[in-house]
Amino acid sequence: MQSAITSIGSIMLQSSVNALGIVYVSAYTALMKIKQFTICPYNAFDTAIATYTSQNFGAGKMERVKSGIKAGFIIYGIYSIVIGLVLIFAGDKIALIFVDGSETEVLSCVRLFFQCCGVFYLAIVVLNCLRAVIQGLGYGMASMLAGICELLARAGMALVFIPRFGYIAVCFTDGAAWILAGACVAIMYAGIFKRLEKKLTKYTVDS
């Protein structure tokens, strides 16, 4: 379901990009291949964090869950900083795998996108790490709300900002989606974690 929600947002965004012209479509096609590749490690991190959280939560070891979150933030953070800097300074060079060097306009669009989007990779640290923790704690529906927030952000950019501001709005769409969804996840995480700690404390006292 979560992947379906993400796909809807991507389709809406692609439709808006198509209306901008062939240069932007070519640039977006190339940069999306690069971006999707950079996102793959996050999926592996997500699975590891969710599994670690569920195992330790099941054993009632909330301190280990907290330790896992801290380690997750460090791992996500290091990767996000490294890949963000690579994309900011060399995203257009990587795009040469998919785009001919003579297509300077296309490469300029790719460069602009990654210069805008690269700094927002740090927002994925909060979004993906805490979403994986929430999933590991058994709150799948709460995690899905983050996907809905991403969809709303992308839909808003596609329907309102891209038609008005053009390609520059495309460059900030992922950042807007990650920040909105990350804020949503952080709020849900705080509420869920506090509630679960109270339950475990009460259970320990009663036992």
Automatic annotation (TrEMBL):
InterPro entries, from UniProt?
Answer: MATE_fam, Membrane_Transporter-Flippase
Which UniProt keywords are given for this protein, alphabetically ordered? Cell membrane, Membrane, Transmembrane, Transmembrane helix, Transport
Q: How does it sit in the membrane?
A: Multi-pass membrane protein
Primary localization class, coarse: membrane
Task: Kindly list the GO CC terms recorded for this protein.
Answer: plasma membrane
Location of this chain's protein in the cell: Cell membrane
Give the transmembrane ranges: 12-31, 71-90, 110-130, 137-161, 167-192
Top-level taxon of origin: Bacteria
**Record GO terms (molecular function):** antiporter activity; xenobiotic transmembrane transporter activity
Could you tell me what this protein is called?
Uncharacterized protein
